[in-house]
Amino acid sequence: NAFNGCTGITRVTIGTDVTSLPATAFTGCTGITSVTWNAKNCTTSYTSSAQPFSANKANISSFSFGSLVESIPAYLCYQMTTLSSISIGSSVTSIGTYAFSGCSNLATVKFGTGASSPCNIETIGLGAFASCTKVANVYCYGSSATDAMARWLNIGFAGTTANPFGASTVAGSSKKFYINGTNTTTLTPTNLSGATTIKKYAF
After folding, report:
1. Would you give the DSSP letter of residue 8?
2. Which residue, of 23, 33, 106, 153, has the greatest Cβ tally within 10 A?
3. Phi, psi of 58 (to 5 degrees)
4. Cα 128 from Cα 131, distance rounded (Å)
5. 175-185: per-residue pLDDT in tens?
6. CA distance 141 to 124
7. Residue 22: other Cβ atoms inside 10 A
8. Going edge to edge, which strands form the sheet with 34-37?
9. Pick from 44, 199, 13, 46: which is nearest to 128 by CA?
10. Looking at the DSSP assignment, which residues form a beta bridge with residue 109?
């Protein structure tokens, strides 16, 4: 309980070399509203009843990931109900189970940040976006539009709600899938030309 009861803490930055962060590290820190997560490979296992920022998770409106992060732990952002957008950098290859489950106001999810920082996600765990009912915009980036589509189709989604759109109740016409920043409404031989595989739950 390293920072137990430090109610005056509003912003937290987790360093690159942190490999273990107990779920109790910020117990009682009810003032946290912003987190920057730089931990390259944090191996701590979290659960639906124990996450490091659970004391004020309903009021954390900003959660960003550093450029060296390779994996996002299970349940890390569980039920952060004021998060509206997240951006997953190009170094991230895996997202743990239920990592963003219950983020009921999450509207925008970005995989990669641009052509020079593409999506490199290999696996997304079961329920990672469960109960994310307001997701309306999903972005995937690659070196080109065909490359971005190929990267998306190669993601190993562990189930329907591992896909950000999986639990969304947003009307179909309002859901937008952006490939390199361009809303994609049709699948054609051209935009699928870079793909060698289409994995389950991609659409």
Report:
1. T
2. 106
3. -70, -15
4. 9
5. 999 999 999 99
6. 17
7. 13
8. 11-14, 34-37, 62-65
9. 46
10. 86, 138
Q: Report the C-alpha gap between 185 and 177 in whole angstroms.
A: 7
**CB-based contacts of 188, cutoff 8 Å, min separation 6:** none
Structure tokens at 90: 């190009």
Could you tell me the two tokens for 142? 């690659």
SS (H, E, C) 68-113: CCCEECCCCCCCCCCCCEEEECCCCCEECCCCCCCCCCCCEEEECC
pLDDT confidence of 194, banded at 50, 70, 90?
A: confident
pLDDT of residue 1: 63
142 in Cβ contact with 115 (< 8 Å): yes
Which positions ≥6 away from 156 have C-beta within 8 Å? 122, 123, 124, 199
Interatomic CA distance for residues 63 and 106, integer angstroms:
12
Partners of residue 110 on adjacent β-strands: 87, 139
The residue-averaged pLDDT of 98-110 equals 97
Q: Tens digit of pLDDT for each residue in 38-84?
A: 999 999 989 999 999 998 899 999 999 999 999 999 999 999 999 99
Token code pair at residue 13: 């930055």
Helix (H) or strand (E) run with residue 152 in it: helix 145-153
**The two structure tokens encoding residue 188:** 């054609």
Model-wide pTM > 0.90? yes
Query: Which distant-in-sequence residues (6+ apart) come within 8 Å of 46 by Cβ?
Result: 23, 52, 73, 74, 75, 76, 78
